[in-house]
Amino acid sequence: MPTVDDILEHIGEFNFFQKQTFFLLALLSAAFTPIYVGIVFLAFTPDHRCLSPGVAELSRRCGWSLAEELNYTAPGPGAAGEASPHQCRRYEVDWNQSALSCADPLAGLAANRSHLPLGPCRHGWVYETPGSSIVTEFNLVCASSWMLDLFQSAVNVGFFIGSVGIGYIADRFGRKLCLLVTILINAASGLLLAVSPNYTWVLIFRLIQGLVSKAGWLIGYILITEFVGLSYRRTVGIVYQMAFTVGLLALVGVAYVLPHWRWLQLTVSLPNVFFLLYYWCIPESPRWLISQNKNAKAMRIIKHIAKKNGKSLPTSLQSLRPDEEADEKLNPSFLDLVRTPQIRKHTLILMYNWFTSSVLYQGLIMHMGLAGSNFYLDFFYSALVEFPAALLIILTIDRLGRRYPWAASNMVAGVACLASVFIPDDLQWLKVTVACLGRMGITMAYEMVCLVNAELYPTFIRNLGVLVCSSMCDIGGIITPFLVYRLTNVWHELPLLVFAVIGLVAGVLVLLLPETKGKALPETIDEAENMQRPRKNKEKMIYLQVKKVDNPLN
């Protein structure tokens, strides 16, 4: 029986239909960026100080500059590594009393400022920013700073739950239905987040966005890889992820123009409303329909693809029937990911590599910090690093296969982290160069794990397999801030040492996976189990439709 890949060779592996569908889904990929990294702009924490009634009036009367005002009225700097006292503490002084002088207003109250009592910021804060963020609007600083951590954790918790739950639904009820549902919920929650009256509602809608947004992005990835032919599958997978990087660059521009978080949130949520039009633009995956024994519907979509591509479907390929093991509709189960030995090995290694990619990708950014004073330019430059990573994958993946570039990228990231530990601080240029090399390596690994994950599972559990394994990157996203900041308190370079070990182990484990270069997507569990064995070269097979004619004997 011909496979979908065999049929696509005749009706077009990447013609007009696939290009149109890819463009539409790439827009979806770019629109996921504000949810994944939007906290950088939505919840930035500017420099701030306690609001003390009377200080502003005294400053105007005395003609102080901002530096002089802070010097005369705010507590001095604290110990290294601690927040400045003026951010969370204030002098318990009545600044409205007329006896205060402009030369040194506190001199008449105490001979030494350290003897003056300090108190909490009872009247709020003053933020040094022309815009606004969730932090400035809801005062998520000092004693309430943990609420910002909760805001970020809620997104990753949503990613984790949504990836597993919606992945099962997508394999059970179809890619298209699940994609449209996630788009609808994402659009509604994003718009409601922009008008949320308080922090509680902001947290709730952010959690809802996490539940559906990442799952929708991954379903789009699955759809496009199932629509294109074998020879184009890896390219569209990589470029689909590059669309996310384009979204990073676009987000910087939008955030620069709209420094107020509510307007920014509203603007980045509006595209999801237009994505609902995909109901009329993107059909269901024929591969999924065949796996569910819905061959008539699959054939109608295949004919639609052929018509869009201006091709004719040969008569010999117009009769589809299920594989022998698919006589009954296959329903995906979580146990299918670990029931058989090879798929179980694939699942465990893929889960670890998703975890590694997330921890190193986010951890390196957190540890290195922003190089320079221009917040927007720093983010822009860090996003540009991801384009050479994608280019290296495209140049090597067809020549060397998947395994070796993937293993090497993990090892390069690990070695870069290890090397950074021993580079002295006075060689800052070398530290930055090695850090960029590590960022490029782990970016390659991140893109590779997404590509290969879809190639190692049979059709009826492919979506479930990708989403369950990728949920480990959400676990990594939850623990990475604690891993970086807690270990840094012990030794500044200790997180890099941990990253080095994690990355090197991931590189070794990748070598235990089968090579998927030039292989058709497995349709059944048997095909997935036997991927390391040579398969028949289907490209040279010819399918003939033979009609038996009974001739009566004369």
UniProtKB/TrEMBL annotation:
Q: Where in the cell is it found?
A: Basal cell membrane; Basolateral cell membrane
Principal localisation: membrane
Entry GO CC: basolateral plasma membrane
Q: Which reaction does it catalyse?
A: 1-methylnicotinamide(out) = 1-methylnicotinamide(in); (R)-salsolinol(in) = (R)-salsolinol(out); putrescine(out) = putrescine(in); histamine(out) = histamine(in)
Looking up PANTHER family in the UniProt record yields: SOLUTE CARRIER FAMILY 22 MEMBER
Which NCBIfam families does the entry mention?
2A0119
Q: What is this protein called?
A: Solute carrier family 22 member 2
This protein's species is: Panthera pardus (Leopard)
